Automatic annotation (TrEMBL):
Coiled coil: none annotated. Keywords: Cytoplasmic vesicle, Golgi apparatus, Membrane, Protein transport, Transport. It comes from the Eukaryota. GO terms for cellular component: AP-1 adaptor complex; synapse. Belongs to the adaptor complexes large subunit family. It is a peripheral membrane protein. Pfam families: Adaptin_N, Alpha_adaptinC2. The keyword Transport applies. GO terms for molecular function: clathrin adaptor activity. The gene is AP1G2. This is AP-1 complex subunit gamma. Its main location: membrane. GO terms for biological process: Golgi to vacuole transport; intracellular protein transport. It comes from Canis lupus familiaris. It is found in: Cytoplasmic vesicle membrane; Endomembrane system; Golgi apparatus.
Length: 787
C-alpha cells in the first residue's frame, strides 16, 4: 500500500527549515527514496505531484535522472494536470544527448494535432527547448500547419518553434517560406516579432530565402514607419518608444536584406533618416533603436548624407553618461573609420577625451580609435595626445599604445628629426613595452639620416645618462655611441644645447651599462660592441677598452664570451685590420612600402635554398587536383642566391642594420580582386624580386565583411606544368567578420620560360552554417606578373 506523500509546499518548507547542509541532504534523500517507491508502485493519481517535487530537488542541484521515464508517462496521459508537469519535466530533465528524448516524438505529434490550445502550447514549448534535428524533421509539417491557425496563442509559439527548427535543420527553410509572407500581415505584435525573427534566421542561412524576402522590403518599411509614427500605446510602448523590441528586430532584418543590394537600400533610406531624427534618446529604449539604425545605415548601401548622420549620432553617444553607450559608440566608430574617415575625424576631440576614462575597456577602445584616426595632417597633435596618455595609462595598455605610436610615426612622420624625437620619447617613457623591432627600426632610421647623426647621438647620450633601466633605449644609445662617438666628442651640433663630453665620461657610462644588474645579455652585447667601435674613434689610449673586453672573455654568457674573445683576437692578431672592420656602417635609405617589399623579397631569396614545403599534405593534394594541364606545378624551391660579403660582415658583428639593395626597385604591379561572395573577398598582390626576375611572389588576402565568421578556410592553388609552385601555410583558418584581421597566404611561382601565367584556385570554407566549395580560374593576371 502506498503511503500518502507530502505536498510540494510542505517539502519546500522542510528543506528551507534545515539549519545545516547535512540536514538538507538528509531530508532530500528521504524524499527521493519515497518518490522512487511511489514510481515503482505506480501511483497514477499522485505521479504528477511526485514529479513536481523531484523537479524542485533537481533545481537545488541534486540528481533526478530517475524521473525521466515518468515524464514520458505523464506526457502520454490524457489529463492536463499530468501533461503540464510531464512537459515541464521533459524540458528540465531531457536533452539531445539522451536517447530518451526521442520517445516523446509521437506524444508531441498527437498533442499538436489535438486542437486544444493549451496542450498544443505545451508541446510547442517542449519541442523548441529539447527538439533535436531528428525531431524537427519529423514534426516540421505539424508546426507549419499551426503557423496559420486562427488562435494567436498557438501561432506565436509555432513561430518560435519554427525558429528553433531552422537553427537545427537549415534545409527545412523551404517549408516555412510561404507562411512567413502571410504572417507579415499580422497585427499582433508578438506574432509579428516572432515572424521577423524567423525571416532573419531564414535569410542568414539560405541565399535563396534572402533573395525571396528582398521583395518584401517595402512591406517591412511600412510596418516600421507605422511603429515610428504611432502615438503612445499602453500595451506596447516602453519609455515613450513604440515597441522598441519589434523596431530593433525589423532594423536587423532590413540590414541583412539591404546589404549589397542597391534597390532595397534605396527603399529604406528615407525611413532610416526618419527613425534617426525622430527617435527619443532620453531613455535607453530610444538609444537601442537609434544604435540599431546606425548599424543598418553602416551595412547597407546608404546615401553619403545618411552615413554622416549615423556618425554624428555615434558622436552624440560619446557624450552620454552611460558607459555602455559610450563603449558601443567607440566600437562602431572604429568599424566606420575606414569607410567614412573624414566624418569620424570631426569627433576626434571627443574620442581623445575618452582616453582619460577610468574604465579600462573604454580607454582601450578609445586608444584603438585614436590610433586609427592618425593621418598625415594631424600626426603631430595626435601623437602628442597619445604620448601624454602613454605616461599615465595602465601597464596593460602601454604595449598597445607604444606600438601604435611607433607605427603611426613610421607611416606619417613629417620629418626625420620629428620621427627620431617621437621614438626616443616613447622609448624613454615605456621602453620595456615596445615591440621587438623598435630597436632595429630606430637604428636604421638614424643610420639613414646623415644630417642628424650628431643630433641623435647627443640626445641618446643625454637620455642614457639619466636612465639606464629602459633596455631598448639603452641598446639604441649604445649602438649610436659606438657608431658616432666621434661626433659626440666634437661638440659641433647646433641643434642641441651645448654639451661637453669627455672620452672618460663615455667609457664610464658604457661600463656602467655593462655592470648594471638591469642590463639584459643583449644590452651588454650592444655596449661591448660600442666600446670596441670607440677604440677606433677615440684619440686616447685603448688600454682601458682592452681591459674591459678581456674581462668578458671569461663571461658565463656564451654570446658575450664569444664576442669578447673575437674582439680580443682583433686586438692581438689583427690590429692592423681593426679600423677597417669597425668602420661606420654604410648609410641606409629608408623608403615606403615598395622598399619594404624589396626587403621581404630579398629575405625570401636568401632563405629559398633551405626552404621545404610547410604543409606536405597540402602539396600532395595539389598534385591530385588535376586543375590545369593534368597536374599542378611542382613545388620546387627556386635557385638560392649567394650572400654578399657585406651580409657576412653584418652577421659577424651582429648589428641591427640592413645593407641597401644594389638593384633598382621593381615596377609596381596593381592588385587584383579575384573572388567575392556574401562578404568574403579574395585579393591578390604581386611582387617580383629584382634579383630573380623569374620568381613571382603572390600574397592572397582574404577579407570578410559579413556578419558571421568564415571558418575552416582553405585556399589551394594550381599552375601549368611549365611553372614551379610553392604554397606556404596561411596565417589562419578563420576569417573574422566585420572586416576583422585578414587571413594571408604566400604563393611562390617560378616562371623560367616567362610564359603567360594562369592560376586556378580552390576555396573551401564554412559560412553561415553552410559548407562552401568554389573552384575558379584566374586568367586576367597583369602582364607585369610574367613579362
Amino acid at each position: 500500500m502506498v503511503v500518502p506523500s507530502r505536498k510540494l509546499q510542505d517539502l519546500i518548507e522542510e528543506i528551507r527549515g534545515a539549519k545545516t547542509q547535512a540536514q538538507e541532504r538528509e531530508v532530500i534523500q528521504k524524499e527521493c527514496a519515497h518518490i522512487r517507491a511511489s514510481f515503482r508502485d505506480g501511483d497514477p493519481l499522485h505521479r504528477h505531484r511526485q514529479l513536481a517535487k523531484l523537479l524542485y530537488v533537481h533545481m537545488l542541484g541534486y540528481p533526478a535522472h530517475f524521473g525521466q521515464m515518468e515524464c514520458l508517462k505523464l506526457i502520454a496521459s490524457p489529463r492536463f494536470t499530468d501533461k503540464r508537469v510531464g512537459y515541464l519535466g521533459a524540458m528540465l530533465l531531457l536533452d539531445e544527448r539522451q536517447d530518451a528524448h526521442l520517445l516523446i516524438t509521437n506524444s508531441i505529434k498527437n498533442d499538436l494535432n489535438q486542437g486544444i490550445q493549451v496542450v498544443q502550447g505545451l508541446a510547442l514549448c517542449t519541442l523548441s527547448t529539447v527538439g533535436s534535428a531528428e525531431m524537427c524533421r519529423d514534426l516540421a509539417t505539424e508546426v507549419e500547419k499551426l503557423l496559420l491557425q486562427p488562435g494567436s496563442y498557438v501561432r506565436k509559439k509555432a513561430v518560435l518553434t519554427a525558429v528553433h527548427m531552422i537553427r537545427k535543420v537549415p534545409e527545412l527553410s523551404n517549408i516555412f517560406l510561404p507562411p512567413c509572407a502571410q504572417l507579415l500581415h499580422e497585427r499582433h505584435h508578438g506574432i509579428l516579432l516572432g515572424t521577423i525573427t524567423l525571416i532573419t534566421e531564414l535569410c542568414e542561412r539560405s541565399p535563396a530565402a534572402l533573395k525571396h524576402f528582398q521583395k518584401v522590403v517595402p512591406q517591412l518599411v511600412q510596418i516600421l514607419r507605422t511603429l515610428v509614427t504611432t502615438g503612445y500605446s499602453t500595451e506596447h510602448s516602453i519609455s515613450g518608444v513604440s515597441d522598441p523590441f519589434l523596431q530593433v528586430q525589423i532594423l536587423r532584418l532590413l540590414r541583412i536584406l539591404g546589404r549589397n543590394h542597391e534597390e532595397s537600400s534605396d527603399t529604406m533610406n528615407d525611413l532610416l533618416a526618419q527613425v534617426a531624427t525622430n527617435t527619443d534618446t532620453s531613455r535607453n529604449a530610444g538609444n537601442a533603436v537609434l544604435f540599431e539604425t546606425v548599424l543598418t545605415i553602416m551595412d547597407i548601401r546608404s546615401a553619403t548624407g545618411l552615413r554622416v548622420l549615423a556618425v554624428n549620432i555615434l558622436g552624440r553617444f560619446l557624450l552620454n553618461s552611460d558607459k555602455n553607450i559610450r563603449y558601443v559608440a567607440l566600437t562602431s566608430l572604429l568599424r566606420m573609420v575606414q569607410s567614412d574617415h573624414s566624418a569620424v575625424q570631426r569627433h576626434r576631440p571627443t574620442v581623445v577625451e575618452c582616453l582619460r576614462e577610468v574604465d579600462a575597456s573604454l580607454s582601450r577602445r578609445a586608444l584603438e580609435l585614436s590610433l586609427a584616426l592618425v593621418n598625415s595632417s594631424n600626426v603631430r597633435a595626435m601623437t602628442q595626445e597619445l604620448q601624454s596618455f602613454l605616461e599615465s595609462c595602465s601597464p596593460d595598455l602601454r604595449a598597445d599604445c607604444a606600438s601604435g605610436i611607433l607605427l603611426a610615426a613610421e607611416r606619417f612622420a613629417p620629418t626625420k628629426r620629428w620621427h627620431i624625437d617621437t621614438i626616443l620619447r616613447v622609448l624613454t617613457t615605456a621602453g620595456t613595452h615596445v615591440r621587438d623591432d623598435a630597436v632595429a627600426n630606430l637604428t636604421q632610421l638614424i643610420g639613414g639620416a646623415q644630417e642628424l647623426h650628431a643630433y641623435s647621438v647627443r640626445r641618446l647620450y643625454s637620455a642614457l645618462a639619466e636612465d639606464i633601466s629602459q633596455q631598448p633605449l639603452v641598446q639604441v644609445a649604445a649602438w649610436c655611441i659606438g657608431e658616432y662617438g666621434d661626433l659626440l666628442l666634437e661638440g659641433s651640433c647646433e641643434e642641441t644645447e651645448p654639451l661637453q663630453v669627455e672620452e672618460e665620461d663615455v667609457l664610464d657610462l658604457l661600463e656602467k651599462v655593462l655592470q648594471s644588474h638591469m642590463s639584459l645579455p643583449a644590452t651588454r652585447g650592444y655596449a661591448l660592441t660600442a666600446l670596441m667601435k670607440l677604440s677606433t674613434r677615440l684619440r686616447g689610449d685603448n688600454n682601458r677598452i682592452r681591459q674591459v673586453v678581456s674581462i668578458y672573455g671569461s663571461c658565463l654568457d656564451m654570446e658575450l664570451q664569444q664576442r669578447a674573445v673575437e674582439y680580443n683576437t682583433l686586438f692581438r692578431k689583427y690590429d692592423h685590420m681593426r679600423a677597417a672592420i669597425l668602420e661606420k656602417m654604410p648609410l641606409v635609405e629608408r623608403g615606403g612600402t615598395q622598399d619594404e617589399e624589396i626587403k621581404e623579397s630579398k629575405e625570401a631569396q636568401l632563405s629559398e635554398a633551405s626552404l621545404v614545403p610547410t604543409e606536405p599534405q597540402a602539396s600532395e593534394l595539389l598534385d591530385l587536383l588535376d586543375l590545369l594541364d593534368g597536374t599542378s606545378g611542382a613545388a620546387q624551391p627556386p635557385p638560392p642566391l649567394e650572400p654578399s660579403p657585406g651580409d657576412v660582415l653584418v652577421h659577424l658583428l651582429d648589428l641591427p642594420c640592413d645593407l641597401p639593395s644594389a638593384s633598382p626597385p621593381p615596377a609596381s604591379i596593381p592588385n587584383l580582386r579575384v573572388f567575392e561572395r556574401e562578404g568574403l573577398q579574395l585579393n591578390l598582390s604581386f611582387v617580383r624580386p629584382p634579383g630573380t626576375p623569374a620568381l613571382l611572389l603572390i600574397t592572397i588576402t582574404a577579407i570578410n565583411t559579413s556578419e558571421a565568421d568564415v571558418i575552416h578556410f582553405i585556399c589551394q592553388a594550381a599552375v601549368p606544368k611549365s611553372f614551379q609552385l610553392q604554397l606556404q601555410a596561411p596565417s589562419g583558418d578563420t576569417v573574422p567578420a566585420h572586416s576583422g584581421l585578414p587571413v594571408t597566404q604566400l604563393l611562390r611561382i617560378l616562371n623560367p620560360n616567362k610564359a603567360p601565367l594562369r592560376l586556378k584556385l580552390r576555396l573551401t570554407y564554412n559560412h553561415f552554417g553552410q559548407s562552401v566549395q568554389e573552384i575558379f580560374e584566374v586568367n586576367n593576371l597583369p602582364m607585369e606578373t610574367w613579362q
